[in-house]
Amino acid sequence: MSAPATAVPGAGAAAPGTGISISRVGYEYRPPRGRPVLALENISLDIKDREFVALLGPSGCGKSTLLYLIGGFMPLQQGSISVNGRIVTAPGPDRGIVFQSFALFPWKTVIQNILYGLEKRGLPREECRRRAQHYIDLVHLRGFEDSYPSQLSGGMKQRVAIARTLATEPGTLLMDEPFGALDSQTRTIMQDELLSIWRRSPMTVIFVTHDVREAVLLADRVAVMTARPGRIKALVDTRFSGAADSAEVVRSREYADAVDHLWTLVREEAVAAGAGGRP
Amino acid sequence: MTAALMLWRALPVLILAALWETAARTGLVSEHALPALSSIFAALGGLSAGDLYYHTARSVGRGLIAIVAAIPFGVAAGILIAWYLPVRVLLNPLLQCLYPMPKVALIPLTIIWLGIGDVSKITLIFVGALVPIVMAAFNGARGVDRTLLWTARSLGASEVRLLWEVVLPAALPEILNGIRTAIALAFILIVAGELVIANDGIGHMINMWGEAGHYPGMFAGVIVISAVGFAADRAWVALSAWLTAWRQ
Ligand SMILES: Nc1ncnc2c1ncn2[C@@H]1O[C@H](COP(=O)(O)OP(=O)(O)OP(=O)(O)O)[C@@H](O)[C@H]1O
Ligand SMILES: [Mg+2]
Q: Is the pLDDT of residue A244 over 70?
């Protein structure tokens, strides 16, 4: 029941050996007790190098699962995934991830959390410190360097997690609702920061969100997933010509149209997810 | 803490002490069964400080050596059992047998195998302390949030580093609790071992005075070892809180 995609034909085709290539991926959770859950079914998606793709879909449709598979955290059961020409078999520093649950090390302070990945890179100590401080400033957490995660609000933790991942400057950035815990002002600021970082650096981004406007604003393309088992329902091109700053984009006609269109697609699936009587 | 608050906290103990003293003084209970507190403290005062210090030091020394040895072994075993299936297959049955076994039942065996000296006593305490530490490290290591492990792996941590840098600190609160249990268990085993056969230690003193019918002295021994146990527990709780200050 794949709806007609709005994407320009061939827009997703990556040059061989670059970008992310997801081919016929399926995934079933098999808990030790209880029934198996089919989370993903026949997902195929090609993402070009340096492309920014947003992933939209109702809760429980398998968005996080797909990110985990690209990250190499869970063994693939079906299909294949390759990133920059390399088949994904394990996690690696080429793919940075921001988890939905932040996953901060609670026994490390803010700066220690951020330094952890940097020190693994074998960078000189001074360079690590400098970079860590740079990204702390970037997410507006100056003054909280020595706080433990338990002393931070949800939104602050989320920003630490973002800084930790960005600081290692991965070629592929996987973000699982990274702005979900932020208030709308902070969110807008972080969206702009992310866009400017992405424009400056050679980075492919997959960005999971519930927020249709956010998806349209940030992404080159938006992939809409169906209710569980997750499949790609539609791919919508959302790169607007010549739009430089986001304030301008959100006032444009194209933006409004794309948001409307995606809303319709997402709502269908949200309804389906509700009617599906999920456990 | 203010003096008033400390007094308030100590109140139940003080009331109990007063009841004890009156019961013994009025002859409500026989002097043999329960000597008056005052005579126990008199006996305590009558002991030479050197003797008391020596026997206490011997008891505590045995426990300390055993615990200090049990911690690295127990933590490493617990984490490896949780992490590597072959280790689990190998060690789990042993652990399952050891867990419900009353360790005091091993005293005759340790004496036959290792003699009546310090080695058999320390071994007994070591085995007893090992079990709760292994259990705690195992449970702690199994309960680590998978996204923490994934984060470390994606930032480039090797497997060995992962155990050291993520699993161990994540399991630390649980491990510290397990060691607290081990300390309490160690005190039981210290005294039990010394009661059975020993030339020194608080358990040995309690035994001697009991056999000689010197009950205030016997109770004095009980009070000393209890006080040491209490202090050790408080000290461990304080150290644990300091080590896991990041929790809030
Ligand atoms: N560890 C697990 N064991 C069993 N089932 C799981 C497990 N994790 C996820 N699932 C199931 O897989 C489906 C997809 O989960 P996933 O977390 O990928 O959804 P999601 O799209 O990220 O949802 P959300 O937007 O709420 O974060 C869910 O329906 C869930 O029931
Ligand atoms: Mg999710």
A: no
Residue of B nearest to A118 (CA): B155
- The answer to whether residue B27 sits within a structural domain is no
The total of other beta-carbon atoms located within 10 Å of residue B121's CB is 31
Strand order in the sheet with A86-87: A37-47, A20-29, A78-83, A86-87
| Lining residues, ligand 1, CB within 6 Å | A 29, 31, 37, 39, 57, 59-65, 100, 228
Q: Which domain holds residue B56?
A: 48-247
- The CA–CA distances, whole Å, from A249 to A53, A214, A217, A256, B80 equal 17, 11, 7, 9, 54
Helices B107-114 and B118-142: angle between axes, nearest 10 degrees = 120
For A253-268, the pLDDT digits (tens) are 888 888 889 999 888 8
B23 inside domain: no
CATH of the domain at B219: 1.10.3720.10
Give dist(CA B27, CA B39) in Å, integer.
14
Interface with chain B: mutation pick from A105, A128, A169, highest number of B CBs within 10 Å: A105
Is B29 part of any domain?
A: no
User: Which chain A residues have a beta carbon less than 8 Å from that of B165?
Assistant: 116
From B154, B166, B169, residue closest to A96, measured CB to CB: B154
Interface of B with A in 188-247 (CB under 8 A): 244-247
Widest Cα–Cα separation across chain B: 74
* Counted domains in chain B: 1
Q: Which ligand is nearest to the CA of A210?
A: 1
pLDDT at A21 over 90: yes
- Its ipTM equals 0.89
In a domain, B153, yes or no: yes
Cα A70 from Cα A83, distance rounded (Å): 8
Is residue A116 less than 8 Å (CB to CB) from chain B? yes
The model's pTM: 0.88
B28 pLDDT tier (thresholds 50, 70, 90): confident
